[in-house]
Amino acid sequence: MTIGSPFDRRRAGLLLHPTSLPGGYGNGDLGSDAYRFVEFLAACGFTVWQTLPLGPTHDDLSPYSAQSVHAGNPRLIALEPLVDAGWLRADGGPGAGEDGWAYRRRRLGEARQGFQGRGGKDFAAFEAFRHQHRHWLDDYALYQAIRAANGQRAWFVWPNEQRDRQPKALTSMRQQCVEAITQCQFEQFLFDRQWMALKRYANERGILMFGDIPLFVGYDSADVWAQRDMFLLDRDGRREVVAGVPPDYFSATGQLWGNPHYAWERMEADGFQWWKERIRTQLTQFDLLRIDHFRGLEAYWEIPASAETAVAGRWQLAPGDALFKALKTEFGALPLVAEDLGIITPEVETLRDAHHLPGMKVLHFAFGGGADNPYLPHNHLDSSVIYTGTHDNNTTLGWFHELDESTRAHVFDYLGGGPKQMPELLVRAAFASVARLAVTPMQDVLALGGEHRMNRPGVADGCWRWRFRWDQVGHEVAGHYRHLLELYGRV
């Protein structure tokens, strides 16, 4: 099926990270429930599936501080296809006291043993994958192997010779960790194969895959360890300054993310090769990409590494214009959306508009102010993406229940209707918008309350774990949403 470009017509999409799917062990994965979700999208008339970043996470499970900008999260690898391929024997699931990730990790090790004994075209495909992706896969697999050998500690507290990538130390670890390195490469091969198969399945049904690029990179990541000169670090790899945002809607003291900042002068000097490779990977995996914290490409909030909050930061200019010009020279027109939320200045808008990037509008931010609020539907532009809320927001029902009476009155005065029509009232407003693409989180389709939100910015524990169940999806949902999308010209 020819599915066209993301903004060739009015479209609608659902926001759901694959970890939030039913099925799988410990979290949703790329197995049968992912394909069922694609079929659900198609039945409803949605033509976009938006995810969060797909990279390998740390124990906090945040996809916005991954261990690699190229690698996929092995937690997403489904086990059923490995059984179907004959690389893994079916079993009864996790053993006593074994959590979902420990079980999946053990089974992936067993799958490689089954895979290695078979040879043939699958082994040739594995070897081709390793060769094609060696520019990042070699460092990433070695990083994971050394990290495991050091008790899963971060690279910046490894022994100095490993931390500083001394050649003899790296050669020694490659020899000692052959099994761990090969296992990591095998898992990346599986992730790539499963993700690309799912993407083809979605595209064949007219559904575009919409990804997310975190602006900043996790400090404890293969990217920072392998290319320290691309980041503002001292000679021992310590952060000099860190990323975050000043006080805003989400926090009175701002957000202290802790990511290292880029050495922008060094990146610009070699034509932004690091960014070109990063974008190349993402353009392979997705049809459309959101740049998280887009405003940081015009100016970023630089916070001393010793600071306890983000209040002590300052704005520093970034070479966003030069970066986008280099990317356009390399790739041509870029299917990018600018996450232009937060403190947006005329300079940020100029950068976005100069490169013809759609921005974002979020209806949760629309009410409680005047008629000039840019998030109100009558102020929307067709070259934008409208959301009820994002992964950082409460669910729409949770948001509504937290509103004061004055803001609730504004909502109903503007939209009409009453409390019993939430969250559909806001969903309809998004669909009715002139914005070319409208996206709503799965929680709003299921009319779920605030206890089902995905993330609470600034809260370290308990986030990124939400999952839905198929029994929450009534038989009437697909037909109802197809009617709505037809009504608002989005099918």
TrEMBL record:
What biological processes does GO assign it?
A: carbohydrate metabolic process
Origin superkingdom = Bacteria
Has the keyword Cytoplasm been applied to this entry? no
The UniProt keyword set, sorted, is:
Carbohydrate metabolism, Glycosyltransferase, Transferase
Q: Key word Transferase present in the record?
A: yes
**Which GO MF terms does the UniProt record name?**
4-alpha-glucanotransferase activity
Q: Return the InterPro entries for the record.
A: GH, Glyco_hydro_77
SUPFAM superfamilies found in the cross-reference section: (Trans)glycosidases
Residue ranges that the Swiss-Prot or TrEMBL entry lists as coiled coil: none
Which Enzyme Commission number(s) are on file for it? 2.4.1.25
Reactions catalysed according to its record: Transfers a segment of a (1->4)-alpha-D-glucan to a new position in an acceptor, which may be glucose or a (1->4)-alpha-D-glucan
Family stated for the protein in its record = Belongs to the disproportionating enzyme family.
**What is the recorded name of this protein?**
4-alpha-glucanotransferase
Taxonomic source organism: Candidatus Contendobacter odensis Run_B_J11
Its lineage reads: Bacteria, Pseudomonadati, Pseudomonadota, Gammaproteobacteria, Candidatus Competibacteraceae
